[in-house]
TrEMBL record:
Keywords (A to Z) from UniProt: Isomerase, NADP, Oxidoreductase
Protein name listed in UniProt: GDP-L-fucose synthase
Pfam family, one: Epimerase
Enzyme class: oxidoreductase
InterPro entries assigned: Epimerase_deHydtase (IPR001509), GDP_fucose/colitose_synth (IPR028614), NAD(P)-bd_dom_sf (IPR036291)
Residue ranges of every copy of the NAD-dependent epimerase/dehydratase domain listed in the record: 7-232
Length: 322
């Protein structure tokens, strides 16, 4: 029997971490031990605490999901924190992975790291071609550095580190804060409250921007594949097909359907729209996994809304104050 594989997942209690935990139970292989850690288990802003975590768990593989993340409005408000907290955490993780001879590190970027002024569809080669959209530049520049770190650690220390670039993610266990969350959890929460109170359901902005949404459990399957089988240090975009891009208005209507909401729907055009689109190509992913089946958007939305409704009163839903 080979040595035990210890897979450490940082951000293990968040949207993606919980999905990886769910999928890893179905896809776990003999000789593997999965360790999911959240901010209560280690302070990844401290190199000492990060190294103590590595000393304790002795990971052979690391999926680095912990990050300061948020939707458009949180990104616009807290650019310094999005820059600093992400850059410090990833620097500590890279250093610990090198020192503890981790066999593979997979970090998580986002399609918002790409240049704002670009040609479409966006592909993996374009990360550093021009400034990102100003609304999330703190986050985008910090995450761009992951790509550079992957190359430097490979060149100097021979490390096997890489990154995935998912499009907008949604699913159970999201952060449902009414102001700072991403659009889907924010709107699920708002639609639920509008239903309860018999008030209109208000969407921020024009509803016209386009996004590609990936279901957290599909993303988890792809991340586990990346960890096990993706051979490159260069990043890979994890996205649904271009034909599956939707408007924010479509998203709102999918929530209305899944929630059986019967009230009025309004758009508050005094609020920001953010980037109009960031259409990404999944050609590289399709080259490796031509037959991967994504959960249809409406089905994934129904599961996500159902999870929120079922858990709303539990006291354990992030961003819900009872
Ligand atoms: O999820 P979101 O903030 O991500 O979506 P981004 C923003 C879009 O949804 C804008 C509209 O067009 C908003 O006007 N929207 C409507 C809302 N209602 C809401 C709402 O209640 N909450 C939110 N948040 N938006 C983020 C980046 O941008 O995407 C991050 O800022 C990160 O850095 C993340 O990359 C994936 O795609 O605009």
């Amino acid at each position: 029997m080979g040595a035990e594989k210890v897979i450490l997942v940082t951000g293990g209690t968040g949207l993606v971490g919980k999905a990886v935990e769910y999928v890893s139970k179905e896809e776990s292989q003999p000789g593997e031990r999965w360790v999911f850690v959240g901010s209560k288990d280690a302070d990844l802003l401290s190199l000492e605490s990060t190294k103590a975590l590595f000393e304790r768990e002795k990971p052979t593989h690391v999926l680095h999901l912990a990050a300061q993340v948020g939707g458009l409005f949180a990104n616009m408000k807290l650019k310094v924190e999005f820059w600093r907290n992400n850059i410090i955490m990833q620097d500590n993780i890279f250093q610990a992975c090198k020192d503890f001879k981790v066999e593979k590190l997979v970090s998580c970027l986002s399609t918002c790291v790409f240049p704002d002024k670009t040609t479409y569809p966006i592909d993996e080669t374009m990360i550093h071609n021009g400034p990102p959209h100003s609304s999330n530049e703190g986050y985008a520049y910090a995450k761009r550095m992951v790509d550079m770190q992957n190359r430097l650690y490979k060149e100097q220390y021979g490390c096997n580190f890489t990154a995935v670039i998912p499009t907008n993610i949604f699913g159970p266990h999201d952060n449902y804060d009414l102001e700072d969350s991403h659009v889907i959890p924010g709107l699920i929460h708002k639609c639920y409250l509008a239903q309860q109170k018999g008030e209109p359901f208000t969407i921020m902005g024009s509803g016209k921007p386009l996004r590609q949404f990936i279901y957290s459990r599909d993303l988890a399957r792809l991340m586990i594949w990346t960890l096990r089988s993706y051979p490159e240090a260069d990043p890979i975009i994890l996205s649904v097909d271009e034909a599956d891009e939707v408007t924010i208005g479509d998203v709102a209507m999918a929530i209305v359907d899944a929630m059986n909401f019967t009230g009025a729907v309004e758009f508050d055009t005094s609020k920001a729209d953010g980037q109009y689109k960031k259409t990404a190509s999944n050609a590289k992913l399709r080259k490796y996994l031509p037959d991967f089946k994504f959960t249809p958007f409406k089905e994934a939305m129904r599961e996500s809304v159902q999870w929120f409704v079922d858990n709303y009163s539990s006291g354990n839903v992030r961003g819900v104050k009872l």
